[in-house]
Amino acid sequence: MSEVEQFDVIVLGAGPAGEVCAGRLGEAGLSVALVEQELIGGECSFYACMPSKGLLRPAQALAEARRVPGAAQAATGELDVAAALARRDEIIHDLDDSAQLPWVEDHGIALVRGHGSLHGERRLRVGERLLAARRAIVLAPGSAAAMPPIDGLREARPWTNREATTAKSIPASLLVLGGGVVAVELAQAYASLGARVTIVEALDRLISREEPPASELVTQSLRHGGVEVLLGVEATAVEREPGADGDGEVTLTLADGRSLSAEQLLVAVGRRARTDSLGLDSLGVEGGGYVEVDDTMRVPGHDWLYVIGDTNGRALLTHMGKYQARLAADHILGRAVSLRSDGPLSPRVIFTEPQVAAVGHTLASARSAGLSVRAVDQSIDAVAGASFVGHGAPGMARIVIDEDRDVLVGATFAGVEVADWLHAATIAVIGEVPLERLAHAVPCFPTRSEVWLRLLESALD
Amino acid sequence: MSEVEQFDVIVLGAGPAGEVCAGRLGEAGLSVALVEQELIGGECSFYACMPSKGLLRPAQALAEARRVPGAAQAATGELDVAAALARRDEIIHDLDDSAQLPWVEDHGIALVRGHGSLHGERRLRVGERLLAARRAIVLAPGSAAAMPPIDGLREARPWTNREATTAKSIPASLLVLGGGVVAVELAQAYASLGARVTIVEALDRLISREEPPASELVTQSLRHGGVEVLLGVEATAVEREPGADGDGEVTLTLADGRSLSAEQLLVAVGRRARTDSLGLDSLGVEGGGYVEVDDTMRVPGHDWLYVIGDTNGRALLTHMGKYQARLAADHILGRAVSLRSDGPLSPRVIFTEPQVAAVGHTLASARSAGLSVRAVDQSIDAVAGASFVGHGAPGMARIVIDEDRDVLVGATFAGVEVADWLHAATIAVIGEVPLERLAHAVPCFPTRSEVWLRLLESALD
After folding, report:
1. What ipTM does this complex have?
2. Distance of alpha carbon B20 from alpha carbon B27, whole angstroms
3. In terms of CA atoms, which chain B residue is nearest residue A348?
4. Phi/psi-derived region of residue A339, left when phi > 0, alpha when psi is between -120 and 50, beta in every other case
5. Is A446 in Cβ contact with B422 (below 8 Å)?
6. 3-class secondary structure, A439
7. Is there a contact between B445 and A319 if contact means CB atoms under 8 Å apart?
8. Which residue in B67, B83, B346 is closest to A73 by CB distance?
9. B11-24: per-residue pLDDT in tens?
10. Which of B236, B250, B227 has the alpha carbon at shortest distance from B202?
């Protein structure tokens, strides 16, 4: 065993959260080690957000051109699957993280490749090396696809988000187990790229944490795009036929006795924290699951140990991991911090067509939280701006108003290209801008943002 | 002369401002007359915002599809000009306003067709009819293209926005006099539809009220699209050749001696209020120009006379006219009102490619106003979301920060499809959300709204 290498801070996991944290600490002049056993850039950059958006975008850009007379006549060709996959490869840099290295170097960060595990207080072992942190260790190992306990599932070698976002060809048919964000995004992407897709979801609606009308629009759109959507159905067993090359068809048996077969099966029923071999048990912290942290991102009882990103289970979203990373870094740097965005109320976007963009409460979650709220709904397609963008496609907007404080506590938009609308709602919610004042923020004509006008007129009437 | 017809309120002009005002008053139970000599829906719906966006959109939707590998290969055809013009006709309902009539009727509004002019206090004459208002008269006659005093211009029968937005065919060549919003939008639209376009602007940059980097991007894009842009050049004379059908080529003589010829000439050098035959002089109010109003939209000294929309010259934007309309209606209804968005600080969008969306101050206007400000700039194309939307196209974002109050007083975005981004900035500016709080409004990954993250990190560093 070589001598102990000293750093101010050790960050384990070089996904977006780890990178942001390490970068911020490095910029502040601290000596930082960044430990990564896979790719610098993490799940998000190579196996999740980025490639999935890359796979979804071609069909969406084409659909929009086809909604616009004049452009439509120029866009009558077929979506080029090979070109779409090649662009996806470009987006994920062919799974090569060397483009990230200059950034690491520029920030004065010591990159340590390998699997890290805690080795007593403020110490991390990476293979033969032993690292020690003067100030803090920040864990950001991320999450992986959860594998539900279904007979034969593991043996059938199903796809997770990793295989689905990096596949070199499109299977003729794909079963998708699950109905959350990963499931609906990848189901739609694969359908648009030519696969015959079936979603099997145990709950009675897709993206069940979001407003029901948003679920409804996404479900309609999936079905319209040829995806078979089975709701309220559980899978009980999986079997893969051997096949010629060792990978034959996968058959899913459902609780109602039906069975479905396809070339591939994607499991997208949630995530699990990658904490099983981090040595957390040695500290008396339970490993294997999400690690509970306080509002400074520290593990209670271990004031030197921070857990950020998916691994703390608070909000499994890249941007929230980065937000937590800034907060943890600031706390390590001795700055005052406050956590103002957290948990299921965090802003979130589902990049299907229609996109679903939401922040804060849904009507149901607000009521469950005991708030005195009312919802105001408007359709997006009724505003003048919808003559130009998303023309003819349905869309919905809902705001949830806290009647005691007269501020927004939630907003949901579903429609063509509404992802970037969300930030207006996020600022309104986080800024706690009074409704009456919000009514003076005039949306421009003829943008689709005029839906705000209708929402606020209904709200203030 | 028939007997006097009594109403609570008479609204003159059924453009967006007049409609909103009449509608709000009608909904509140007042008896309202709405007087219009042309089309219900006004300049905006038939000759300005709506058709110009209709003409711009096909090229933009197609350009975006062509930026996305996979979609690009399906969008190799030519923009269909006839289909684009047919869609434009659909948007302007073939200049038939009958689709608006049910709305008027539903709101219990008495529609009076014809030219109205003031006839003493609270009275308006429309042809043979004499209308009297118990509470108020609201003038919303709008604006028309200004015609600069250039030799031969009027005689050459140039196009204004009206002809350019409703043309049944695309001229081979088009000269555009002016470099403001109307000029750049229509220049780009016509270039995209096949015309050889030349812009002649007396100032040294286009859209000169906006941030210089935004002007620069629009100018580059116009030039890239084949538009010749001449800056700092004045036109001194215009002549139209008789031609076979009475409409030959138009020749523009420039101050530097050059001359330019084209099939059509579009004059887009500003607007004038349509107040010349409203009988304002009879009240001692100067007609022929913009009518000054106070912050309740009333003409000083005439507490029954409101002027809203373009005609008061405060902010020549449809959405601001509608905002003023709501305010005037509320004031007439005896409600408390406050004007929180006004003048050149109003939110505004230019629908060129790149779109330019701005609210509040530019850096220059803030300095001129004596504010202690600094600007923070970021490019849009550097954020992860730009891998998917507007990929490869340049874009800029600038926020202007009031250093005394630590709030945003201005923001400008220029880029592909940024129109709907603006509302976030508008809420931040109007809501006076402190910068530090704004930093907790987390933009979603990977949306292009993450430019906010970079802007605020730079601002707060």
Report:
1. 0.97
2. 10
3. B444
4. beta
5. no
6. coil
7. yes
8. B83
9. 999 999 999 999 99
10. B236
Residue-level pLDDT at B246 = 63
Nearest CB to B341; choose among A346, A440, A449: A440
Among residues A49, A77, A82, which one has the least CA distance to residue A61?
A: A77
Q: What is the DSSP string of B300-360?
A: TTEEEEEE-GGGG-S---HHHHHHHHHHHHHHHTT------S-GGGS-EEE-SSSEEEEEE
CB B442 within 8 A of CB A344: no
Cβ within 8 Å, pair A69-B76: no
Which pLDDT value is given to residue B138? 98
The shortest CB-CB distance from B75 to any of A62, A69, A424 is to A62
Q: How far is B190 from chain A (nearest CA, A)?
A: 13
Which residue among A44, A54, A72 places its CB closest to the CB of B388? A54
Mind listing the domains of chain A with CATH numbers? 5-41+97-144+272-332 (3.50.50.60), 154-269 (3.50.50.60), 354-460 (3.30.390.30)
Q: Which residues in chain B have Cβ-Cβ distances shorter than 8 Å to A319?
A: 442-445, 450
Tokens for B83? 């289909």
What is the average per-residue pLDDT within A280-306? 92
CB-CB neighbors (< 8 A) of A436 in chain B: none
- The mean of the pLDDT values for chain B is 96
In 3-state terms, chain B is what percent helix, strand and coil (to 5)? 35, 25, 40
In degrees, rounded to 5, the angle at the alpha carbon of residue A189 between the alpha carbons of residues A187 and A191 is 65
- Position B2 scores a pLDDT of 65
CB–CB contact A445 B322 (8 Å) = yes
* % of residues, chain A, pLDDT over 90: 96
Is the per-residue pLDDT at B128 higher than 70?
A: yes
Identify the closest residue of chain B to A49 by CA–CA distance: B446
Distance CA B373, CA B404 (A): 8
- Output the pTM of the full model: 0.97
For residue B172, the one-letter residue type is A
A437: Cβ–Cβ under 8 A, 6 or more apart, which residues? Answer: B340, B430, B431
Q: How far is A202 from chain B (nearest CA, A)?
A: 28
The answer to whether B138 and B10 have CB atoms below 8 angstroms apart is yes
pLDDT of residue B1: 53
- At residue A243, the 3 state secondary structure works out as coil
Chain B contact probe: residue of A444, A449, A457, A460 with most B CBs at under 10 A: A444
CB contacts of B388 in chain A (<8 Å) are 53-54, 57
